[in-house]
């Protein structure tokens, strides 16, 4: 019998999530097997309220019974209605059809679980609390927050007695601000920047943590630090802090404890908590953090009665670093002094709803050991992480005298003099300061700030005894989206290009998909997200991440139906300078359609589409209302066009024929996508309505811009690409339009001229239109403007501009010069979809049935990719030796692929046991059931077309 494993049990895309508020959560799993042809014929899901019941086969919450189905994804829970706090333990039994054995057999997965959060408002007995401002007034070092300066974050604590042995303890927490929780001397969880960024006027995430291991019979202490974050700190380029109308942070915590004797009690924030200032003097996401370790309150997070030496936070990789000096019994004198800690104030609750966080939290994902590269100017130490990241620097100190001030500054590049380049950070100071406590060993990292940097500079202010030791570690921080894809080929520069896209994704997917992580911006720009989202889905599993963000997008929609340009929305009415209304931009606001559509295609998620359907319809209603003629010329607001196209266009708020064409093309495509989604949802009349809308807009597009010879009245690469990608041309003119596009590229000596928008369509459209040769040529182009140009200048991420920095000319003069901006990296999807050839089936979403079709081109001898879909890991690896092609693919169990083997007509194809059923041009077609296959064929790759303009 061949061996099948059931893996990747997920609930709402997450691994064993705690505190869901989805009442019918969806379950999924994957099958793994090396055998060919493995299929699932039936499944049975059992859900029990305890692990023991599940193990005993008692599914007291839900037993799906045996369901004859090959479905393994999005199976909605359909058992006893789930109440707040419910624990759900589940496994799945699957029946496998394996052609290599005659009997059908079943197998049971390992157990997994999820828990429900607090579903009703009435479940919350905790009160919102804020610090007494007196803690700042009486503390000579503390800073009161203002609209321009961050204030000193407050600490909160509460001691309590647990009367008996604890069987379960769960804490629910949120804040207006950012919280870090501690219990009995230990940090609760590893999450950073919680609650994450949402539109805090409308919704606040709460987090759920299992703290059973941290709470015990006897005296206990729960403690929190409350920082500013997006709530009261600087957001975007807004001149003033306090985006949500308040500079006061507040906290909500509810700890629920169940004892062995069945008793339950709740310890919640209220006026009995006490507050104080602490070691963090100021912290702001953009500005940085100032921390004076001499101000730490020893034992502040411990109950007074149990002095003990505790372990430090145990950051990943440093678990168990022992910090001496906490909780010396002598310090309890200070704690016992009731003046030191003042009662917290109960404050009114927000009007925003509390919702469970439904995506992977932000964490330290990786640490890097930087190189010390010099000392400019004297007295500073300069380090290179070797990689542009977002995160912070952690310091490990030994024997550094108390009071020594260590300042960390961050930058993405160095100036020509070899010092830190910070001009492009604009207002963001990105400076952290640590004042040393003077313990034999200290470990410190910031709490409520992060920076985009490759280089950092340390300045030490104070004496340095010979045995003092300082070590700096760079921590890479982002949303913990699981890796999904890997790409590699024979060209090292292309490999670096792919990696640069992956890094820019990692560095920018921090709670929301941002444009950049370094300057005073870091906003959820919709245009950037939509052009990159498919690439993002190739690199990482971002289903939960985008599901969360779509709620931000809908929250940011106006009452009239206008989708925003950034989500969460900036508030234009307060403290605002700049662009006017931030919404409605063509190709930006349209992300409100494109993202759910792409999530449906890649993850098969229809429920998400259903949930946002009303908002999506309102958007198209709004466009239609203002553009009765089928051309989208009105209400374009900032109208970014093909942002940063060549020659560079960064005008906003203006109109031009190109911008009109682009806007109209995106409207047509919105309508086409809506028609398709409506069909998938069974909304037939809406499908007809949107199909008709698409056709009307297409007709208007053709009338306005299409010439009889297939030329467009606006002759840019992007204009042709949009016309091709969005099916805006009559079939008989597609080939002619493609030739005009290719001529345009050739006239630029095989260079692209597309901006953020057009570039996402460039290589996919060239390939689909039969010009993979041109796509390869653009991919491998090394001179400006091209993908490899920044790689050859030493880029480790995708830059905002091709020439953000050049060896010949140095830095681009504009202040808008990010070195970590993923938009121009949207070519990543093409590497997976068309070079490695792992592609969605045109009809079937979600990869249970998919296409394998690599397009080979001059310049690459091999390419290989793996890609974990919701149905398992697909692999494709090809190699060319002369005209001989060897291609190995893996089709995961319970899936099938249509395989297109590159091969010259009339030559032999070795299909490894599969039957070639037909041919499409230079591809032999076969159907592949699950399994690994190696094909060989003959395929001639033509050399690149001659250089030079025609
Ligand atoms: C951002 C972009 C964004 C653009 C809109 C810039 O400031 O960094 O990535 O899409 O504005 O035009």
Write a structural description:
Strand 38 and strand 39 form a beta hairpin. This protein is an alpha+beta fold. The termini are far apart. Strands 20, 21, 25, 26, 27, 28, 31, 32, 33 and 34 form a ten-stranded mixed sheet that branches. Strands 35, 40, 41, 42, 43, 44, 45 and 46 form an eight-stranded mixed sheet that branches. Strands 3, 4, 5, 7, 8 and 9 form a six-stranded antiparallel sheet that branches. The protein is 21% helix and 30% strand. Among the domains are: 5-115, Immunoglobulin-like; 124-281 and 294-356, Galactose-binding domain-like (Jelly Rolls), CATH 2.60.120; 362-479, Galactose-binding domain-like (Jelly Rolls), CATH 2.60.120; 846-938, Maltose phosphorylase, domain 3 (Sandwich), CATH 2.60.420. The longest helix is centred in the last third of the chain and has 25 residues, at 657-681. The radius of gyration is 29 Å and the shape is globular. The site of beta-D-glucopyranose (BGC) has 10 residues, from helix 6. InterPro entries: 6-hairpin_glycosidase_sf, 6hp_glycosidase-like_sf, Alpha_rhamnosid, Bac_rhamnosid6H, Bac_rhamnosid_C, Bac_rhamnosid_N, Ig-like_fold, Rhamnosid_concanavalin. Keywords: Hydrolase.
